[in-house]
Amino acid sequence: MTSIDSFREDVSRFVHDRLPGDIAAKVATGRELEKDDYVRWQKILGERGWLIGEWPKEWGGGGWEPERQLAFLQETGRAGAPMVIPYGVKMVGPVIQTFGTEDQKRRHIPGILSSDVWWCQGYSEPGAGSDLASLRTSAVREGDHYRVNGSKLWTTQAHWADWMHCLVRTDSSGKPQQGISFLLIDMKTPGLTIRPILTLDGQHHTNETFFDNVMVPVENLVGTEGRGWEIAKFLLGNERISIAETGAKLRLLGTLQQMFERVRASDTEPGFLKARLQAKLLDVEMQLSTLVALETYFVRAWAQGRPSGVDGSILKIRGTEILQAMTEVALDLEGPYAAVHDPADLHDGLQVPETAARQASAMAHEYLYGRCWSIFGGANEVQRNIIAKAVLG
Amino acid sequence: MSFLLDMNEEHRLLADSLERMGREINEFEARRRRLRATPADRMALWPHLAEVGAFGLAFEDRRGGFGGTTTDIAVLVDSLASCLPVEPIIASLVAAGRTLAAAGCDRADRLIAALIGGTRVPVLAHTEGFDAFAPPHLVRALPIADGYVLSGMKPAVRGADVATDIIVSALLPDGAVGLFALDTASAGIEMERTRLIDDAGAADLKLNDVVAAGGDLLEIDDAMAAIGDAQEWSLMALAVETASLARAMNRATFDYLNVREQFGQKLSRFQALQHKAADMAVAQAEAEAVASSAVSLLVEMPSVDRQRHLLLASLAADAAGRVIGHSAIQLHGGMGVSDELIISHYGRRLAAIRTQVATADARLARLVQLQESEL
A119-231 has which fold? Predict the structure, then answer.
């Protein structure tokens, strides 16, 4: 057994042994997780030293090579562990470590590592989605503060967050990419308000955030004023290993296979219908195993010096489109329950018994929220533009 | 109305008043508030529809209505589609209505009259598994003196949550199928209510030794044929609804592409999005064409050939609805996945349509079955 294989086994066993039963049950039944569920799990990972496995050793991390990072992501996802919420440990943490001052490190890193301080990301705006560089939320220097005005859209988990890392415009005289700065903003600052936005799945994941003369101390600027775009690009580079999210997809495939077994066992459904569903299931299995192979191939090639180039865009497109195909098969496998979707089912206490309708709500949730993935984080059309530009020049 | 329907002056007047009603009563925010309330109000349109006599459109003169043709149903569905009614118009008027109209008995006559008057809401409960075209096997009716005892379960019956009566199919001891009209307040009827992806309501209908009077068994020569006819009419209505939603979604999406700017120009200037929009226009034309053909198909007498063509049309409508539903959301970007804009609500209704009556897989399986039985 290679060291990666035995690491995979360790991770899988750790999740099995240490993931609190109530969180495991919520994930298994497709219930929505609360902030406290994520915090508890991240603290458990933190104690084991696995919250920041991918951080370099000199920052106190595990110094994991990409292949180990991928193994960890896949095994935790497949075993039903909550994802590590990226805004702190995966995004602003490495930014502060790389671009921040000693003072910023002292102030913010401990809270990120303990998961006691929760972060959100303020990038997109009403007028700046895929075209992020056109963002307009302004930060004007006044003495030892920036005065921030404007609004951010799709600030996911802002309602859970203590701090936001935010892209703001400090200068609008040059090209759009110039004059953007990276600010850390305390969510309790006067003038900052959030408005919940329900998404099409009927859940409250995301928000609009308004800045009305929010005064941010100058010491919360990360890096150089006007160089925030470089930080944003640095963050995108960090995403390449987690972008395809194959662990959770492998788990979903397992769920679909269980659902199909129940149909197969029926002695009243027509044989053709069973064969049709089986073929659809095999088709998404083929697509997903290709994605897993692609991801493994890239990770190994990166380790051997392949520039990641557009690989992240390739993984984003295939990962999101395969997820969407899988969730449509999920609905097909629901048969008479295919249209059932009660968002409230996902918040029921664990004492509420499992029913066919509750499971259908969870699958419809996957289908509906699945529509978001090809839009958020750089729409797939933009990813295709990136690839086309790279291959066509 | 952008696709071919043979409308008369009466249709035009009714369509106008229904469209106006939809805009007023189902104004987006008002509808959203009603559906998010506890409990949700899913019948707000119903009394207004009864008041303008819309329900009479589903029945022939001899059943107390003033319509009953496929065009009548199509006008009704098309006029209301873009206001996204969650009221069980197709489940009640079309599915239950067609089975009641096939029956020759007092019970059916009284229910039709009450349905037209807006005082009773019957819905059809037939499907028990994936295969919506199979006879019932879970719900069984055993004869007793003066009637029957029914037991069994029907999963996720659309509209059952607001129904006053259920037209339920049951297997009789001799292997025949009976259709029973049961008051939902009858002892032994249990409803496990749930919500559907388009915000409509449904319920798992459990029949725990429900006693039905002899007169509750509808007098129909061939119950499975009546159910098949009701399903075909429902699929026709759903194809019409798909075409209307395709039109509404395309209009909203094309408008959005012409307004929204990214990277310094209108989204409609990007060729990748232009091609997506073109494919949506193609799909809309197809949806309209198959809706029109479904409307004219059902004028013919029921036959295997009619069912075959109708199933093909409904699958084509589904495919077009999927292209448009998913593309319209994608092209709206973040706004497309927000509950605050109507576009995701249209998309959710299209997702529901693809499962209503029978899933696409079940419809395809039925086509295979029809073909195999002819060989």
Answer: Butyryl-CoA Dehydrogenase, subunit A; domain 2 (2.40.110)
